[in-house]
Structures are given as C-alpha cells and as structure tokens.
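During the second half of the funding period, the structural biology subgroup turned its attention to how the target accommodates small molecules. The most pressing case was zinc ion, which had performed well in the primary screen but for which no bound structure existed. We therefore specified the complex as follows and requested a full 3D prediction, including the ligand pose.
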Amino acid sequence: MEHGNNRRTPCPCKSGNAYADCCQPFHKGKRPDTALQLMRSRYSAYALCLPAYIIHTTHPGSPQFCHDTAEWSKKISEFCTNTKFKNLEILYFQETASFATVTFTAHLAQDKKDTSFTEKSYFEKIKGKWLYRSGQLFEGHAPNVITTNQLRLLPIAYYGSPILRKIGDPIANMTADIRKLVEEMVETMDACNGIGLAAPQIHHSIKLFVIRRPVEIEGGKIEWREVKIFVNPELSMPSRETWKVAEGCLSIPSIHAEVERPREVTVEYSDLEGNKIKERVSGWEARVIMHETDHVNGILFIDHLGADERQYLEPFLKSLENTIHDGTEL
Ligand SMILES: [Zn+2]
Ligand SMILES: [Zn+2]
C-alpha cells in the first residue's frame, strides 16, 4: 500500500481521517501540538516503518534511546517489518504544560500471533517539542490500568541549565509549599524512573532532595523501596574505602559513567516534620545520598570523572545540550 500520494488513503493510526490530513504532516516535519498527536503519528511511523521519525521524537532519557542511531534504526525496522499494526486504541490522555500521559492499546500481531499490549506512556515537552519519554507496559488489552489522578509532574532542569550549578539555599521552615513540592518531586522521580531527585533539578534552588531507599536483595540485586526526604543535608566522615560503579542522572539523560565514591558516609538532615536526623549510611544508599547532596551544592556526577573520561563524554554532553537548549534535532 502506498501512503502519501492518495489523499484518501486512511491513516494507519486508525483515526478515521486520511493520512494526508492526519499523521503525514508530522512525518514531514510539522510539530505536534499535543502529546496525543505525537502518540498517533509515532504509531503511524511504526506502521509505515519510518525509523527516523521514531528516533527524532524519542527523549534522550528514554530507555530506548541509543547513541548509535544506525543500530537503533535497524532494530526499529526489524520490529516494523515483523509486525502487523491492526489498530491503535486510545484509552486515556492527560496533558500539563510540560508532561503528558497517553494510555493506549496497540493491537498488533507477529507471525499470526496476537502481540497486543497496553501502555501508559509518558511524554515530555522540551523547547516546545513533545518527546516520548517512557512507558509502563501491560500485556494485551488492559483498560483497567487507567488512572485518572491529576498529573503533578514538574519540568526537569537539564544539563546546561545554570540552576544546576548554583548552591541551593538552606530551608528555614517546612511550609505547606515545601510539602506540596516534595509530593510533586516524588511523582516526578517515579514517572521518570529515577531513584533520587534534588530540588535544583526541578528548578528550585534549595537544599532538598528525595530518594527511594535501596535495599539489597538476593543475588546482589537492588530493590528501590520507600521514599526518604532530606532537608538541609550535610555529609561528614566519608569512609577511606571507595567503590566505583556506573551512575546516571535525570538531568543528564542517556549519559552514564563509573564514579568512584566512599563506601560509607554520615549524613545529617531534617525530615519534613523538622526532626534532626543523623545516620551512617553505606553502599547504594550512601551513593545516592552523595549524588543528591552534590546536586544541592551545584555539583554533577560528571565532575567526579577523570580528565580522559570527561573528554570522552564531551561530544555526547555537547549534543545533549544542543538537543535540549537549542531545539535542534537529536
Ligand atoms: Zn493519523
Ligand atoms: Zn542527578
């Protein structure tokens, strides 16, 4: 089937409109006004096997993001050619100024087998451009996964934002505004699959961060459990023993590097009730607390790298900065 020439060719997104009046303008470079339009045009792009469009509309923080675009493009093409795109069913759509969720069922088949799935997908608007960020997948048609709670996600400050380099102000009082901010930070951290989020990363220059407490389970795996809130954190007595492992950061999406940090550290902070707490933490918990305490002091994990490694990352950081701040294509 030839798309694009015949004005009456139905759009693969199953909107019921002609392709020329539906998803084609987006594939030709028009920016979708809503995340829902982007959702539809991405489904159409999969159905028509247009990997470049998928790549250009994927957020650098997406788990699917790949720096090797040739390899990524090949993977998408393979999926497209082996899949029959039967229908796109939109179940729920919610949008704020910078985040959106679209819950949908993609009715698909591979080798005559039904491979349909339902996804609650997240989209983020960067420089006026909607990008697909991530999704939670459920097998088959699963309309029961719809949640209609109000979206309370905060815009993220990305690499290159001056606020990430400022030292946050100490918090004097736990006001209602701070409590509300903490709730929104937790939602934002979870929606972005983060394990920690500091206030400067959501454009508030204050000494505050949230984490999910890591617990080591069988086989050395980590489970990220309940939320811990840190107000005015101070670190002391780092252990002499250090360890090195790969870290990432919600503000520096798609970039990972091994960072050497002390295995243990003492942290003093206040909780939301204003109680002063002093704890000795170790392992991943110490690492996340050190990463986030760095944030409220204007420090990023890439600052801990050696000169060679920093130099290796430089082109990736430059391209990330261009993507996010100049609105150029990925
Ligand atoms: Zn369409
Ligand atoms: Zn970070």
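Two results from this model are relevant to the next phase. The chain has a mean pLDDT of 92. The domain at 162-326 is CATH 3.90.45.10 (Peptide Deformylase).
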